[in-house]
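Bit of a strange request maybe. I'm writing a small parser for structure token strings and I need a real example to test against, not something I typed by hand. Could someone generate the tokens for this chain?
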Amino acid sequence: MCGICGAIGAKPETLVPAVRRMMRAMPHRGPDDEGFEQMPMGPAAGGMVAAFGFRRLAILDLSMAGHQPMISPFTDDCLVFNGEIYNYRAIRDKLAAERVQVRSTGDTEVLLKALVHWGDAALDMLDGMYALAFYHARTRRVLLARDPVGIKPLYVSRTGHGLLFASEVRMLRSSGLISDEYDPAGVASFLTYGAPQDPLTVHRDIRSFPCGSRTWLSVDTSGRVSEEPTRRFWTFPKPIPGRSATEASESLTATLRQTVREHLASDVPIAFFLSGGIDSAVIATLATEQLGCVSTYSVGFDSPSMKSELPVAAETARLLKSDHHEVILSTGNIRTTWEQWMLAADRPSVDGLNTFLITKAVKAGNAKVAFSGLGADEIFGGYANFFRVRRLAPLLRAVGTMPVAVRETVARTLLPLCPPRYRSRLLMLARASGRPIDLAVQLKQILGSSTLAELGLRAEAVGLGDDFLPEELHSQLADAGDDPFLAVSRVETYVYMQNTLLRDADTNSMAHSIELRVPFVGRAVLEEAARSPGELHLGGGRIPKAVLRQAVGGFLAPAVLNRPKTGFTLPVGDWMYNELRDFCEAAIDGLRHIPFIDATAARKLWERFERERAHTYWMKPLLLVALGNYADSCSRTYLDSAGAMKLRPRR
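Reply from user aminoacidic:
Good idea to test on real output. This should exercise your parser:
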């Protein structure tokens, strides 16, 4: 786990200092080592350059044999790579069979030698989390690639100086070569879904590189960076028709055991997140089989309005006989913790506070790697939306012959019978097409189109469709067809997990220099889950995560396996209107820095949310707070005389 950055273009005198500045912006991603390399691009003696920067968090092979950028001594090819390749031992064996020698005990040299030997075809062999840049010396080209569902981030910016890439948005901003100008489409998608939807960010000049994809970059004789069409090298496999529940569960059991075993590769201490559910317990149990006693960590809070998961997590820890640690967020220190969390944000976000807290505790416990159960709900069918779409889609199709205006009129007559917090959802359903994929998308929306219009954001005006999703993301959802399970799973994976959970998990764990591993999002598990039809995963429409439950029933304690799903949340709404009220009020004022948002309307919307807070989902006002705080912070950042990004105090 590290931080990478780089620049490709025709002006070394501009690009090299920019890369150095980006390196200074990411010490948290790599406190153990740093490196820089500069390679020629374009025609000989043309003055074009590829510059790679790196900060290292040493996890495998702690010696200098893991130093990056790593250069092949035989070809002068060069690699910078953020992440881990979990099946690197199997790839090393394949290289050895073809007489390619690997000297280090880590995965970076394996990846470099694989790319040198097989070219970008090596990407098809990888099971891991990664974002990489690979310089091919013979052709003077650079390969960019990212793992199948985007566990590791990679952002790019195309400027008049060339192309820049980095592991974080703030790193690109610190280059000094791009504008902080906001992107209406990225901001609108954030307010709709709680995260900018790939490839968008909230900044016009910064884009997220697509997951599961690769492209080659070169520099032509005029100094212009040219790019091959970006190609997806990974997609979900199709379900196997007629697959039995027994076959599915037995195959998944074997896959989970192998995946966790490979993920445990580490030369530093590791720890495990533990909630009250089965997902984190599965990972910790399989790890315990391999390692004996493991260290587990849980987050809780003191709040009279919401029940903490700490007691049930402690019971799971007792069954595991783990070395258990509890992190309690008290009302008395929420202000300090909240400000630290917001300051660590690489982008506006409404998620990740729990990860920020627990990885801080893991750091204090001297571990450098943590394991999470993230991803199981999205691919195995753990959310209520899997059942909602299954039930609602046929009903909405049945009334779909009625004109939309008639459906809306009927819905409005039913509004008094509906709880206040669900009334906007009822109106949304009245306009729904009945297609499972459309319904799954609509159910993930937090703020609706009418609310965004109040703020000055309309889908057509910002270049998005009515659902506020970019066209590139629609292509990732297309394979779901009319299958309700696949529709929800793809939306949960690519809209929610990829853009919210994984991005926030990376940002908040790396804020404390902790590598976070997510075995359920490993390529082998993703593919194994996809091979089982939705009917199996949902137990014929009766049991969430039925295949997973059957697969782990042989080793997971019955008390944990049979525990009902509760979902983890923090009493954020209580805090926002009490202990954090003045912070939130100041953040709302920060929206004035985004020129296309109606700041007066935003203030009125905040006040309305406050009046109706008993019936308003807390994430709605938090969207405004997170965006306003981010905009205010961006307005106060500057590069000091050494080129480091600093934050001016509020006036």
